[in-house]
Amino acid sequence: MLTIGELASYAGVTVRAVRHYHAKGLLPEPERDPLGYRRYGGDAVIELIRIRTLADAGVPLARVRELLRAGEAEFAAAVADIDRRLRAEIRERERNRERIARLAAGDDLALPPEVVELLHRLRELGVDERIIRVERDGWIPLAARSPERVPEWTARKREQLADPRFAGFYLTLGQALDWTVDDPRLAGLADELAAYLTRMADEQGEDSMGDTGVEPRFAELMDALAFDTAPPARRLIELLEERGWTGWTRLERVGRGRVSG
């Protein structure tokens, strides 16, 4: 026979909890022995463990009382239902853990894996972080608007970045953000970039530049979001248009068909 302290310790609860369960009518309170102690047998241990287990699982004490009085079949069905609920809560908690972990991952939180990989590649190439932010901010609405095309677009961009000349433009564009809008180097960069685009379109066909399928008004909005806060970049777009190319999200050879990439 166990004292109340021994019972509580064995079942993994406090003496206060045992007394609370007595008060709620969940656990029968034995009579005192001749020495004035309440003694608990094996049945009390099993009953207390059942109460603690159900309570720890989030079952209200009123429902615990009902289950303790239920028949074997009803009790088993209730336990199975509790188990299903707990499994669902565990799955949701795991999803929450994944979301919390992604908070520390920065770009990973709002972007598809293919885009995250692409941004990592730009960092590996040494591209200025400001350009990477512009790239990131452009991908978010694209991915939201046409998620099914993201793998195709990112694969095309990776192919382009494999060309050292194209990657070099990214590096130079990062430097250009520190130039003034009247810096003559912008004109030189526009000359090189326009010549590169023209050569690619002529050699491989304009379709090889890629067709994002982005509507003109949406593309204009994306360009504005990307470049309006960076005057040198905006000036570069203007210089490119003077050299036969317009837009950025939706590149188009002036006077000819659309070329987007």
Short description:
Residues 1-70 form the HTH merR-type domain. One of its GO terms (molecular function) is DNA binding. The chain is mostly helical and 261 residues long.
How would you describe this structure to a colleague?
Keywords: DNA-binding. This is DNA-binding transcriptional MerR regulator. One of its GO terms (molecular function) is DNA binding. InterPro entries: DNA-bd_dom_put_sf, MerR-type_HTH_dom, MerR_fam. With 261 residues, the protein is mainly alpha-helical. It has twelve helices and two strands. The protein has helices at residues 4-11, 15-23, 42-56, 61-69, 72-103, 113-125, 129-145, 150-161, 164-176, 184-204, 216-227, 231-242; strands spanning 245-246, 252-253. It is rod-shaped, with a radius of gyration of 34 Å. It starts with a helix and ends in an 8-residue tail after the last strand.
How do the helices and strands line up, and which of them pair or pack?
Blueprint: H1 4-11, H2 15-23, H3 42-56, H4 61-69, H5 72-103, H6 113-125, H7 129-145, H8 150-161, H9 164-176, H10 184-204, H11 216-227, H12 231-242, E1 245-246, E2 252-253
Antiparallel strand pairs: 1-2
